[in-house]
Amino acid sequence: MNNALFAFCNVRKFNIPLKLILIFLFLNIAIPVNSYFVTYKEQWYRLFHIHHNQAPDDSMENIYWLEQAIKAPFANPLYALAKIENEIQWEKYRYLFNMHLYIKLIEQYMFLGNKWNKRNAYFFNAPWRDQNLESLEIAETCYRTALYYWDYALEWAEKANERRFRWIDLEKVQFWQDEARRIENGRLNYGRTIQRELDALQRVREQFESMEKWY
To answer: Do residues 77 and 90 lie in contact, with contact meaning Cβ atoms separated by under 8 Å?
Structure first.
């Protein structure tokens, strides 16, 4: 089973919307066949991209690339995205790369959740209460999947922040090192951010549920 779909099916106890499952199944068969030539993490990661005006389809495509990168082996250190000269640099690079992939995956799920989320339950939306509740359910699934992946990001960040790596600087992936440090000092905490989104979503859900279906 695709990792993203597995996460969807395990982070929650209620049924996942069929619409969202079908989207992810479609992604597994709709990616161009030239992806056959993409083998290593570094190659899959290069396919990941951020659009200036990003649509849900763009996020789902990026989720596919990132999922493949997570599953793929690393390229030879000669082809790493940082200059690698010894084994300890190589080890830290691998920890940072895995952490960064999960962070990007979290961000894509959060972006997707934001597209489905409803920030307010306006009284004039009462005739579409059920549709709004369905949209909130999809948004919650996205947020909970992001929360599921946050544990993995924390795990890899902890490895990258081990004391023996303190003086190992990988300049070409400095941003990844900054992410690891921000996780360590609590300045980057997607767990807290996602929980705040879930709490707000629940409040809006309760407002919709209290509405009469027809205004």
So the answer is: yes
- The string of pLDDT tens digits covering residues 186-206 is 999 999 999 999 999 999 999
Q: Taking the model in full, what pTM does it have?
A: 0.82
Q: Domains in the chain: how many in total? A: 1
Cβ atoms < 10 Å from Cβ of 30: 11
Q: Quick check: is 102 in a domain?
A: yes
214 located within any domain? no
* Residue ranges in 163-212 assigned as alpha helix (H): 174-184, 190-209
The backbone torsions φ and ψ at residue 13, rounded to the nearest 5 degrees and listed phi first, read: -95, -15
CB 112 within 8 A of CB 142: yes
Question: Using one digit for the tens of pLDDT, what is the confidence trace for 80-138?
Answer: 999 999 999 999 999 999 999 999 999 999 999 999 999 999 889 889 999 999 999 99
| Long-range interactions of 8-16: CB distance < 8 A, separation 24+ | 8/141, 8/145, 10/148, 11/141, 11/144, 11/145, 11/147, 11/148, 12/140, 12/141, 12/144, 16/141
DSSP 8-state secondary structure symbol assigned to residue 14 = S
